[in-house]
Write a structure and sequence with these properties.
493 residues; alpha/beta; Rossmann fold; 10-stranded mixed sheet; 6-stranded parallel sheet; 15 helices; 18 strands; 28% helix; globular
Protein backbone atom coordinates (compact mmCIF):
# COMPACT_ATOMS: atom_id res chain seq x y z
CA UNK A 1 0.00 0.00 0.00
CA UNK A 2 1.42 3.43 -0.93
CA UNK A 3 1.74 6.25 1.59
CA UNK A 4 -1.25 8.22 0.31
CA UNK A 5 -3.56 5.18 0.48
CA UNK A 6 -2.31 4.35 3.92
CA UNK A 7 -2.93 7.90 5.15
CA UNK A 8 -6.43 7.89 3.70
CA UNK A 9 -7.33 4.62 5.39
CA UNK A 10 -6.44 5.86 8.86
CA UNK A 11 -4.68 8.66 10.73
CA UNK A 12 -3.94 6.36 13.65
CA UNK A 13 -0.46 5.41 12.52
CA UNK A 14 0.33 9.04 11.66
CA UNK A 15 -0.76 10.30 15.06
CA UNK A 16 1.16 7.49 16.67
CA UNK A 17 4.38 8.85 15.20
CA UNK A 18 3.71 12.20 16.88
CA UNK A 19 3.15 10.93 20.41
CA UNK A 20 6.77 11.22 21.47
CA UNK A 21 7.03 14.71 20.03
CA UNK A 22 3.95 15.89 21.89
CA UNK A 23 4.98 14.29 25.15
CA UNK A 24 8.28 16.15 25.16
CA UNK A 25 7.21 19.44 23.60
CA UNK A 26 7.14 22.75 25.41
CA UNK A 27 7.20 26.32 24.14
CA UNK A 28 10.60 27.93 24.71
CA UNK A 29 11.49 31.22 23.02
CA UNK A 30 13.97 30.73 20.18
CA UNK A 31 16.22 33.42 21.61
CA UNK A 32 16.71 31.19 24.64
CA UNK A 33 17.36 27.86 22.95
CA UNK A 34 18.84 26.85 19.60
CA UNK A 35 16.65 23.79 19.18
CA UNK A 36 14.77 25.26 16.24
CA UNK A 37 17.91 26.47 14.51
CA UNK A 38 17.28 30.21 14.92
CA UNK A 39 20.22 32.61 15.16
CA UNK A 40 19.09 35.89 16.78
CA UNK A 41 18.63 38.66 15.92
CA UNK A 42 18.12 37.59 12.29
CA UNK A 43 16.20 34.42 13.10
CA UNK A 44 13.44 33.38 10.73
CA UNK A 45 10.45 31.11 11.26
CA UNK A 46 10.05 28.13 8.90
CA UNK A 47 6.44 28.32 7.73
CA UNK A 48 4.21 26.01 5.69
CA UNK A 49 1.02 27.21 4.01
CA UNK A 50 -1.95 24.85 3.82
CA UNK A 51 -4.74 26.07 1.53
CA UNK A 52 -2.90 28.88 -0.22
CA UNK A 53 -4.90 29.89 -3.30
CA UNK A 54 -7.01 32.57 -1.58
CA UNK A 55 -6.64 34.09 1.88
CA UNK A 56 -3.65 31.88 2.60
CA UNK A 57 -1.49 33.85 0.17
CA UNK A 58 -2.47 37.12 1.88
CA UNK A 59 -1.41 35.74 5.26
CA UNK A 60 1.90 34.41 3.95
CA UNK A 61 2.65 37.71 2.22
CA UNK A 62 1.97 39.48 5.52
CA UNK A 63 4.79 37.49 7.17
CA UNK A 64 7.78 39.10 5.43
CA UNK A 65 11.31 38.02 6.21
CA UNK A 66 10.30 34.47 7.19
CA UNK A 67 11.18 31.20 5.46
CA UNK A 68 8.21 29.85 3.47
CA UNK A 69 9.48 26.29 3.23
CA UNK A 70 6.37 24.37 2.14
CA UNK A 71 3.14 25.05 0.23
CA UNK A 72 0.18 22.67 0.26
CA UNK A 73 -3.02 22.94 -1.76
CA UNK A 74 -5.44 20.42 -3.27
CA UNK A 75 -5.65 22.49 -6.50
CA UNK A 76 -2.28 23.27 -8.04
CA UNK A 77 -3.79 25.43 -10.76
CA UNK A 78 -5.53 27.66 -8.20
CA UNK A 79 -2.34 27.76 -6.16
CA UNK A 80 0.04 28.34 -9.09
CA UNK A 81 0.55 32.07 -8.46
CA UNK A 82 1.62 31.27 -4.89
CA UNK A 83 4.04 28.58 -6.04
CA UNK A 84 5.58 31.19 -8.34
CA UNK A 85 5.76 33.76 -5.54
CA UNK A 86 7.66 31.31 -3.29
CA UNK A 87 9.66 29.14 -5.73
CA UNK A 88 11.95 27.66 -3.08
CA UNK A 89 9.06 26.13 -1.11
CA UNK A 90 8.40 22.43 -1.50
CA UNK A 91 4.97 21.67 -3.05
CA UNK A 92 2.40 19.25 -1.61
CA UNK A 93 -1.25 18.31 -2.11
CA UNK A 94 -1.88 16.30 1.08
CA UNK A 95 -1.09 18.05 4.36
CA UNK A 96 -0.63 14.68 6.08
CA UNK A 97 2.16 13.67 3.71
CA UNK A 98 3.74 17.09 4.14
CA UNK A 99 3.71 16.97 7.94
CA UNK A 100 4.99 13.40 7.99
CA UNK A 101 7.85 13.91 5.56
CA UNK A 102 9.04 17.52 5.78
CA UNK A 103 10.82 17.97 9.08
CA UNK A 104 11.91 21.61 8.90
CA UNK A 105 8.41 23.08 9.38
CA UNK A 106 7.99 25.08 12.59
CA UNK A 107 4.62 26.76 11.98
CA UNK A 108 1.67 26.36 9.63
CA UNK A 109 -0.74 28.88 8.14
CA UNK A 110 -4.08 27.24 7.32
CA UNK A 111 -6.68 28.80 5.01
CA UNK A 112 -8.60 25.82 3.64
CA UNK A 113 -12.44 25.67 3.42
CA UNK A 114 -14.08 25.67 6.85
CA UNK A 115 -14.77 21.92 7.00
CA UNK A 116 -11.05 21.13 6.72
CA UNK A 117 -9.72 23.62 9.28
CA UNK A 118 -9.56 21.34 12.30
CA UNK A 119 -7.81 18.29 10.88
CA UNK A 120 -4.57 19.95 9.68
CA UNK A 121 -4.53 22.27 12.69
CA UNK A 122 -4.78 19.34 15.10
CA UNK A 123 -2.17 17.30 13.21
CA UNK A 124 0.28 20.20 13.28
CA UNK A 125 -0.32 20.94 16.96
CA UNK A 126 0.22 17.28 17.85
CA UNK A 127 3.63 17.59 16.22
CA UNK A 128 4.46 20.68 18.28
CA UNK A 129 4.07 23.13 15.40
CA UNK A 130 2.60 26.59 15.86
CA UNK A 131 -0.72 27.24 14.08
CA UNK A 132 -2.20 30.31 12.40
CA UNK A 133 -5.74 29.25 11.42
CA UNK A 134 -8.13 31.32 9.34
CA UNK A 135 -11.58 32.28 10.59
CA UNK A 136 -14.02 30.83 11.34
CA UNK A 137 -11.77 28.75 13.52
CA UNK A 138 -13.77 25.57 12.88
CA UNK A 139 -16.84 24.20 11.15
CA UNK A 140 -18.55 23.00 14.33
CA UNK A 141 -18.88 23.84 18.03
CA UNK A 142 -17.15 20.65 19.16
CA UNK A 143 -14.15 21.23 16.90
CA UNK A 144 -13.63 24.65 18.49
CA UNK A 145 -13.59 23.11 21.95
CA UNK A 146 -11.22 20.40 20.75
CA UNK A 147 -8.67 22.85 19.35
CA UNK A 148 -8.90 25.08 22.43
CA UNK A 149 -8.07 22.16 24.69
CA UNK A 150 -5.38 20.83 22.35
CA UNK A 151 -3.65 24.22 22.30
CA UNK A 152 -3.57 24.22 26.07
CA UNK A 153 -2.24 20.66 26.14
CA UNK A 154 0.53 21.10 23.57
CA UNK A 155 1.55 24.63 24.48
CA UNK A 156 2.05 25.70 20.88
CA UNK A 157 1.46 29.30 19.78
CA UNK A 158 -1.92 29.77 18.09
CA UNK A 159 -3.77 32.56 16.34
CA UNK A 160 -7.13 32.77 14.56
CA UNK A 161 -7.07 34.78 11.34
CA UNK A 162 -9.56 37.47 12.34
CA UNK A 163 -6.89 39.99 11.42
CA UNK A 164 -8.81 43.07 12.52
CA UNK A 165 -8.63 41.93 16.15
CA UNK A 166 -5.19 43.55 16.23
CA UNK A 167 -6.57 46.96 15.12
CA UNK A 168 -6.35 49.87 17.57
CA UNK A 169 -10.09 50.53 17.24
CA UNK A 170 -10.91 47.20 18.91
CA UNK A 171 -9.22 48.41 22.07
CA UNK A 172 -10.53 51.96 21.76
CA UNK A 173 -14.12 50.68 21.85
CA UNK A 174 -13.27 48.36 24.75
CA UNK A 175 -11.87 51.33 26.68
CA UNK A 176 -15.12 53.27 26.12
CA UNK A 177 -17.16 50.33 27.39
CA UNK A 178 -14.90 49.48 30.33
CA UNK A 179 -14.82 53.14 31.41
CA UNK A 180 -18.59 53.02 31.88
CA UNK A 181 -19.22 55.68 29.21
CA UNK A 182 -22.21 53.79 27.79
CA UNK A 183 -23.69 52.66 31.10
CA UNK A 184 -25.29 49.22 31.33
CA UNK A 185 -25.41 47.53 27.92
CA UNK A 186 -28.30 45.09 27.67
CA UNK A 187 -28.84 45.19 23.92
CA UNK A 188 -26.43 44.72 21.00
CA UNK A 189 -27.12 44.54 17.25
CA UNK A 190 -24.66 43.28 14.62
CA UNK A 191 -25.26 43.15 10.87
CA UNK A 192 -23.68 42.34 7.48
CA UNK A 193 -24.69 42.52 3.83
CA UNK A 194 -23.13 39.07 3.22
CA UNK A 195 -23.58 36.67 1.55
CA UNK A 196 -22.16 38.06 -1.66
CA UNK A 197 -22.04 34.50 -3.03
CA UNK A 198 -24.98 32.25 -3.84
CA UNK A 199 -26.89 30.71 -0.92
CA UNK A 200 -30.28 29.07 -0.51
CA UNK A 201 -29.44 26.74 -3.40
CA UNK A 202 -30.06 23.04 -4.09
CA UNK A 203 -27.31 20.76 -5.34
CA UNK A 204 -26.34 21.34 -8.96
CA UNK A 205 -27.73 18.62 -11.23
CA UNK A 206 -24.94 18.40 -13.76
CA UNK A 207 -21.78 16.47 -12.91
CA UNK A 208 -18.64 18.18 -14.20
CA UNK A 209 -15.31 16.54 -14.92
CA UNK A 210 -12.78 17.13 -12.18
CA UNK A 211 -9.90 19.35 -13.39
CA UNK A 212 -6.70 17.33 -13.60
CA UNK A 213 -4.93 19.78 -11.27
CA UNK A 214 -7.48 19.23 -8.47
CA UNK A 215 -7.53 16.33 -5.99
CA UNK A 216 -11.30 16.29 -5.37
CA UNK A 217 -11.09 13.55 -2.75
CA UNK A 218 -8.75 15.71 -0.64
CA UNK A 219 -11.02 18.74 -1.07
CA UNK A 220 -14.00 16.71 0.21
CA UNK A 221 -11.91 15.46 3.12
CA UNK A 222 -14.12 14.44 6.08
CA UNK A 223 -17.39 15.45 4.36
CA UNK A 224 -19.71 13.12 2.48
CA UNK A 225 -18.52 12.52 -1.08
CA UNK A 226 -20.38 14.29 -3.91
CA UNK A 227 -19.56 14.87 -7.58
CA UNK A 228 -17.36 17.82 -8.42
CA UNK A 229 -18.95 21.04 -9.63
CA UNK A 230 -17.49 24.56 -9.93
CA UNK A 231 -20.36 25.68 -7.66
CA UNK A 232 -18.28 24.24 -4.79
CA UNK A 233 -14.70 25.19 -5.65
CA UNK A 234 -12.71 27.38 -5.54
CA UNK A 235 -14.77 29.99 -3.65
CA UNK A 236 -18.52 29.34 -3.50
CA UNK A 237 -18.01 26.55 -0.95
CA UNK A 238 -18.86 29.10 1.78
CA UNK A 239 -22.61 28.78 1.24
CA UNK A 240 -22.81 24.96 1.35
CA UNK A 241 -23.46 23.39 4.76
CA UNK A 242 -20.99 20.53 4.17
CA UNK A 243 -18.08 22.86 3.44
CA UNK A 244 -18.79 26.33 4.83
CA UNK A 245 -20.65 28.20 7.55
CA UNK A 246 -22.51 30.79 5.49
CA UNK A 247 -22.54 34.52 6.11
CA UNK A 248 -22.40 34.05 9.89
CA UNK A 249 -19.22 31.99 9.71
CA UNK A 250 -17.64 34.29 7.16
CA UNK A 251 -18.34 37.64 8.81
CA UNK A 252 -19.25 36.73 12.39
CA UNK A 253 -15.63 36.47 13.52
CA UNK A 254 -15.09 39.98 12.14
CA UNK A 255 -18.22 41.81 13.25
CA UNK A 256 -18.88 39.97 16.52
CA UNK A 257 -15.29 40.30 17.66
CA UNK A 258 -15.58 43.68 19.41
CA UNK A 259 -18.86 42.77 21.15
CA UNK A 260 -17.28 39.52 22.32
CA UNK A 261 -14.03 41.15 23.46
CA UNK A 262 -15.34 44.39 24.95
CA UNK A 263 -18.37 42.87 26.69
CA UNK A 264 -16.68 39.65 27.93
CA UNK A 265 -19.58 37.67 26.44
CA UNK A 266 -18.51 34.08 27.00
CA UNK A 267 -21.09 31.40 26.19
CA UNK A 268 -24.79 32.21 25.70
CA UNK A 269 -27.41 30.44 27.75
CA UNK A 270 -30.06 30.50 25.03
CA UNK A 271 -30.42 31.34 21.35
CA UNK A 272 -32.99 31.35 18.54
CA UNK A 273 -33.21 32.24 14.85
CA UNK A 274 -35.47 33.15 11.96
CA UNK A 275 -34.50 33.21 8.30
CA UNK A 276 -35.53 32.85 4.69
CA UNK A 277 -36.11 29.27 3.53
CA UNK A 278 -33.76 26.76 5.17
CA UNK A 279 -32.80 23.81 2.98
CA UNK A 280 -30.76 20.66 3.45
CA UNK A 281 -27.81 21.75 1.32
CA UNK A 282 -27.00 25.43 1.78
CA UNK A 283 -27.38 28.32 4.19
CA UNK A 284 -30.37 30.65 3.75
CA UNK A 285 -30.24 33.89 1.78
CA UNK A 286 -30.81 35.93 4.95
CA UNK A 287 -31.06 35.19 8.66
CA UNK A 288 -31.49 36.72 12.10
CA UNK A 289 -30.02 35.04 15.18
CA UNK A 290 -30.55 36.22 18.77
CA UNK A 291 -28.31 35.09 21.65
CA UNK A 292 -29.05 35.57 25.37
CA UNK A 293 -25.94 35.99 27.53
CA UNK A 294 -26.04 35.77 31.32
CA UNK A 295 -24.66 38.53 33.55
CA UNK A 296 -20.86 38.48 33.74
CA UNK A 297 -18.37 39.68 36.35
CA UNK A 298 -18.37 43.48 36.66
CA UNK A 299 -15.29 45.64 36.11
CA UNK A 300 -14.26 48.66 38.18
CA UNK A 301 -16.28 51.18 36.18
CA UNK A 302 -18.53 48.90 34.15
CA UNK A 303 -21.27 46.39 34.92
CA UNK A 304 -22.10 43.46 32.65
CA UNK A 305 -25.82 42.65 33.08
CA UNK A 306 -27.74 40.01 31.14
CA UNK A 307 -27.61 40.91 27.47
CA UNK A 308 -29.41 40.12 24.22
CA UNK A 309 -27.33 40.19 21.04
CA UNK A 310 -28.97 39.95 17.61
CA UNK A 311 -27.15 39.10 14.39
CA UNK A 312 -28.55 40.06 10.96
CA UNK A 313 -27.26 38.96 7.54
CA UNK A 314 -28.37 38.97 3.93
CA UNK A 315 -28.99 42.72 4.05
CA UNK A 316 -31.25 42.67 7.10
CA UNK A 317 -30.54 45.45 9.60
CA UNK A 318 -31.78 46.51 13.03
CA UNK A 319 -34.23 49.36 13.42
CA UNK A 320 -32.62 52.74 13.94
CA UNK A 321 -33.14 53.90 17.52
CA UNK A 322 -35.29 57.06 17.67
CA UNK A 323 -32.98 58.73 20.20
CA UNK A 324 -30.15 58.73 17.64
CA UNK A 325 -29.57 61.59 15.22
CA UNK A 326 -31.74 60.96 12.16
CA UNK A 327 -28.61 60.67 10.00
CA UNK A 328 -26.41 58.64 12.39
CA UNK A 329 -24.29 56.43 10.08
CA UNK A 330 -25.11 52.71 10.02
CA UNK A 331 -23.06 51.20 7.20
CA UNK A 332 -25.27 48.65 5.34
CA UNK A 333 -22.16 46.65 4.54
CA UNK A 334 -21.63 45.73 8.16
CA UNK A 335 -21.44 47.12 11.66
CA UNK A 336 -22.59 46.88 15.26
CA UNK A 337 -24.49 48.96 17.79
CA UNK A 338 -24.21 48.92 21.60
CA UNK A 339 -27.30 50.35 23.28
CA UNK A 340 -26.40 51.42 26.82
CA UNK A 341 -28.34 53.07 29.63
CA UNK A 342 -26.26 56.25 29.20
CA UNK A 343 -25.31 56.33 25.52
CA UNK A 344 -25.23 54.37 22.24
CA UNK A 345 -22.13 53.39 20.26
CA UNK A 346 -22.20 52.56 16.54
CA UNK A 347 -19.20 51.23 14.61
CA UNK A 348 -18.12 49.21 11.62
CA UNK A 349 -16.14 45.96 11.72
CA UNK A 350 -13.49 45.84 14.45
CA UNK A 351 -14.70 49.16 15.81
CA UNK A 352 -13.86 51.13 12.69
CA UNK A 353 -15.31 54.68 12.55
CA UNK A 354 -16.88 54.29 16.01
CA UNK A 355 -19.09 57.09 17.30
CA UNK A 356 -20.94 57.62 20.58
CA UNK A 357 -24.35 59.32 20.79
CA UNK A 358 -26.19 60.73 23.80
CA UNK A 359 -29.52 62.61 23.85
CA UNK A 360 -29.59 62.73 20.05
CA UNK A 361 -26.10 64.24 19.73
CA UNK A 362 -22.66 62.85 18.97
CA UNK A 363 -20.38 63.10 22.01
CA UNK A 364 -16.70 62.45 22.74
CA UNK A 365 -16.48 60.06 25.71
CA UNK A 366 -13.89 60.53 28.43
CA UNK A 367 -12.21 57.20 29.10
CA UNK A 368 -10.37 56.19 32.25
CA UNK A 369 -9.12 52.76 31.19
CA UNK A 370 -6.06 52.05 29.04
CA UNK A 371 -5.56 48.79 27.13
CA UNK A 372 -2.26 47.91 25.46
CA UNK A 373 -2.25 47.91 21.66
CA UNK A 374 -0.75 45.31 19.33
CA UNK A 375 2.48 46.79 17.94
CA UNK A 376 3.11 47.44 14.27
CA UNK A 377 5.69 45.27 12.56
CA UNK A 378 8.86 47.24 11.75
CA UNK A 379 9.27 45.25 8.52
CA UNK A 380 5.86 46.32 7.25
CA UNK A 381 4.19 42.95 7.69
CA UNK A 382 0.64 42.38 8.84
CA UNK A 383 0.20 43.41 12.46
CA UNK A 384 -1.90 40.33 13.28
CA UNK A 385 0.27 37.87 11.36
CA UNK A 386 3.58 39.25 12.64
CA UNK A 387 2.32 39.29 16.22
CA UNK A 388 1.88 35.53 15.78
CA UNK A 389 5.34 35.16 14.23
CA UNK A 390 7.01 37.14 17.01
CA UNK A 391 5.28 35.09 19.70
CA UNK A 392 6.45 31.90 17.99
CA UNK A 393 10.05 33.10 18.07
CA UNK A 394 10.19 35.04 21.32
CA UNK A 395 7.37 33.70 23.50
CA UNK A 396 4.12 35.37 24.47
CA UNK A 397 0.49 34.93 23.51
CA UNK A 398 -1.08 36.35 20.32
CA UNK A 399 -4.13 38.59 20.51
CA UNK A 400 -6.51 35.98 19.10
CA UNK A 401 -4.94 32.80 20.46
CA UNK A 402 -7.20 29.78 20.67
CA UNK A 403 -7.70 30.53 24.36
CA UNK A 404 -9.70 33.57 23.19
CA UNK A 405 -10.84 32.57 19.70
CA UNK A 406 -11.89 29.00 20.49
CA UNK A 407 -14.74 29.90 22.88
CA UNK A 408 -15.58 32.89 20.66
CA UNK A 409 -15.90 30.66 17.60
CA UNK A 410 -18.17 28.27 19.50
CA UNK A 411 -20.63 31.14 19.88
CA UNK A 412 -20.35 32.17 16.24
CA UNK A 413 -21.00 28.78 14.61
CA UNK A 414 -23.65 27.98 17.23
CA UNK A 415 -25.84 30.51 15.44
CA UNK A 416 -26.06 28.20 12.44
CA UNK A 417 -27.42 25.53 14.75
CA UNK A 418 -30.27 27.87 15.64
CA UNK A 419 -30.90 28.58 11.96
CA UNK A 420 -31.12 24.88 11.08
CA UNK A 421 -33.34 24.01 14.07
CA UNK A 422 -36.01 26.64 13.35
CA UNK A 423 -38.90 24.28 12.69
CA UNK A 424 -38.96 23.36 16.40
CA UNK A 425 -40.35 26.86 17.01
CA UNK A 426 -38.66 27.31 20.37
CA UNK A 427 -35.84 29.09 22.09
CA UNK A 428 -32.93 26.66 22.39
CA UNK A 429 -31.41 26.37 25.88
CA UNK A 430 -27.65 25.83 25.84
CA UNK A 431 -25.47 23.84 28.26
CA UNK A 432 -22.02 25.12 27.32
CA UNK A 433 -20.04 22.76 29.53
CA UNK A 434 -21.53 19.73 27.78
CA UNK A 435 -22.07 21.44 24.39
CA UNK A 436 -25.72 20.40 24.38
CA UNK A 437 -29.15 21.88 23.74
CA UNK A 438 -31.09 20.80 26.81
CA UNK A 439 -34.71 21.29 25.77
CA UNK A 440 -35.07 18.92 22.82
CA UNK A 441 -36.88 15.67 23.65
CA UNK A 442 -35.85 12.34 22.06
CA UNK A 443 -39.04 12.09 20.01
CA UNK A 444 -39.15 15.61 18.53
CA UNK A 445 -39.12 15.93 14.77
CA UNK A 446 -37.19 18.49 12.77
CA UNK A 447 -38.64 19.48 9.40
CA UNK A 448 -36.55 21.09 6.69
CA UNK A 449 -36.71 21.50 2.93
CA UNK A 450 -34.94 19.56 0.21
CA UNK A 451 -34.74 21.52 -3.01
CA UNK A 452 -34.55 19.49 -6.20
CA UNK A 453 -31.23 19.72 -8.06
CA UNK A 454 -30.83 22.48 -10.62
CA UNK A 455 -29.02 22.67 -13.93
CA UNK A 456 -27.41 25.96 -14.89
CA UNK A 457 -27.84 25.27 -18.62
CA UNK A 458 -31.55 24.39 -18.55
CA UNK A 459 -34.27 26.94 -17.77
CA UNK A 460 -37.32 25.31 -16.24
CA UNK A 461 -40.55 26.47 -14.66
CA UNK A 462 -41.84 24.33 -11.84
CA UNK A 463 -44.64 24.77 -9.38
CA UNK A 464 -43.63 24.76 -5.75
CA UNK A 465 -44.62 21.15 -5.08
CA UNK A 466 -42.36 19.92 -7.88
CA UNK A 467 -39.29 21.91 -6.87
CA UNK A 468 -39.04 21.13 -3.16
CA UNK A 469 -39.83 18.39 -0.68
CA UNK A 470 -40.15 18.25 3.10
CA UNK A 471 -37.57 16.18 4.93
CA UNK A 472 -38.09 14.97 8.51
CA UNK A 473 -35.30 14.14 10.93
CA UNK A 474 -35.02 13.24 14.57
CA UNK A 475 -34.31 16.65 16.08
CA UNK A 476 -32.08 15.48 18.91
CA UNK A 477 -29.94 13.33 16.63
CA UNK A 478 -29.46 16.09 14.08
CA UNK A 479 -28.65 18.64 16.75
CA UNK A 480 -25.93 16.37 18.10
CA UNK A 481 -24.60 15.80 14.57
CA UNK A 482 -24.39 19.53 13.86
CA UNK A 483 -22.65 20.21 17.19
CA UNK A 484 -20.13 17.41 16.51
CA UNK A 485 -19.87 16.19 12.92
CA UNK A 486 -19.44 12.55 11.97
CA UNK A 487 -16.39 12.41 9.73
CA UNK A 488 -16.24 10.23 6.64
CA UNK A 489 -14.33 6.95 7.05
CA UNK A 490 -10.59 7.51 6.94
CA UNK A 491 -10.74 10.87 8.73
CA UNK A 492 -10.70 11.24 12.49
CA UNK A 493 -9.24 13.17 15.38
Amino acid sequence: MDLKSNLKSSRRSFIGTTAAAVAGFSVIPSHAVAGLGHTPPSDKLNIAGIGIGGKGKVNLDNMPGQNIVALCDVDWNYADRVFKAYPKAKKWKDFREMLENQKDIEAVVIATPDHTHTLPAAAAMELGKHVYLQKPLTHSVWESRYLTELAQKTGVVTQMGNEGHSNDTVYEVAEVVHSGCLGDIKEVHVWTNRPIWRQGMPKPLKEVKVPNTLDWDLFIGPAEMRPYNPEYHPWIWRGWWDFGTGALGDMGCHLLDVPNYALHLGAPKAFQASSSLVNTESAPVSAQVTYLFPARKNLDYCAFPELELTWYDGGLMPARSFDLPVDAPMNPGGGFMFIGSKATLIAEAYGGKWKVYKNGQEVVPETRVNIDRIPDDPMGGGRHEMHFVNCCKNGGKPASSFEYSGPFNEMVVMGNLAVRMQSLQKTLLWDSENMKVTNISPDETLVTTKLLPFSSDIVTRKVEGESKQSVKWNAQEMCEEWVKHTYKNGWSL
